[in-house]
Design goal:
mainly alpha; 62 residues; membrane; two-stranded antiparallel sheet; 6% strand; single chain
Length: 62
């Protein structure tokens, strides 16, 4: 059985989700870096690292 992502106006949902995830991460990393001495790249990398472990924990506990 083949599962396909639903699309809206011919754009896959995964692509839209990834774009909004990336934009949100970029904006939040930049804002956080204004108030700290950390680079936005460090903030984004830490965010991704933590997100992977949170998702993994959620999937393993479920």
């Amino acid at each position: 059985m083949e599962v396909q992502m639903k699309s809206k106006n011919g754009v896959p949902f995964g692509l839209l989700s990834g774009i909004f995830w990336g934009l949100g991460l970029t904006v939040s990393a930049y804002i956080f870096s204004i108030f700290t001495d950390l680079s936005p790249f460090v903030v984004a990398a830490a965010h991704d690292f933590l997100s992977i472990f949170i998702l993994l924990a959620f999937l393993l506990v479920k």
